[in-house]
Design a protein that fits this description.
34% of the residues lie in helices and 24% in strands. The protein has four helices and nine strands. The structure holds zinc ion.
């Protein structure tokens, strides 16, 4: 049965291709492009940078970065948030934040469903949610809030929220 053999070969090749693509996307991606905390890809506009004694570490969003700060007290020399409007790094302590807006900047790609070896599971806990984005000024934060909802917080308030969730 040549036809059947051909189908089996084709099936095996397809399986190998799928595995290679998966491995390329999940295993061999350069680590510097991933969030230090949740391993998601970094996105311009919401990256949160931490200056440590050992070098710089990037987190995919202020929420992840603040988690790291809370879990490693004393390890951070300086924290930088990205101003969503300009894409520039600004000192995290002087930034204003909007929590809970309707755009999940860093959860867009993975969504609530997660593929795992044993099947598909719904993620109940997400480090990046509720969303937290940073702005240079309170006015910019309030402008975002008008469009996307959520609440405007200063640095200390944002840290307190991250501690709770
Ligand atoms: Zn993250």
């Amino acid at each position: 049965m040549k036809w059947k053999d051909a189908m089996i070969t084709l099936g095996a090749l397809a399986a190998m291709a799928v595995v290679s693509v998966w491995a390329y996307r999940n295993v061999t991606r350069p680590p510097q492009d991933l969030c230090r905390v949740c391993n998601r890809t970094l996105h311009a506009g919401v990256t949160y940078r931490l200056d440590l004694a050992t070098g710089k570490e990037d987190a995919c969003c202020p929420r992840c970065g603040m988690h790291y700060q809370i879990e490693h007290p004393g390890a951070i020399k300086k924290a930088w948030a990205t101003d969503l409007d300009s894409g520039e790094f600004i000192p995290a302590e002087s930034a204003y934040y909007v929590e809970g807006g309707d755009i999940a900047h860093c959860a867009v790609q993975s969504g609530a469903l997660q593929r795992e070896p044993q099947g598909v599971s719904v993620r109940e806990f997400d480090r990046c949610l509720p969303t937290l984005v940073a702005f240079r000024t309170k006015q910019e934060a309030e402008g975002y809030q008008r469009q996307h909802g959520g609440q405007v917080l200063n640095y200390q308030q944002a840290m307190n929220e991250v501690k709770v969730l």
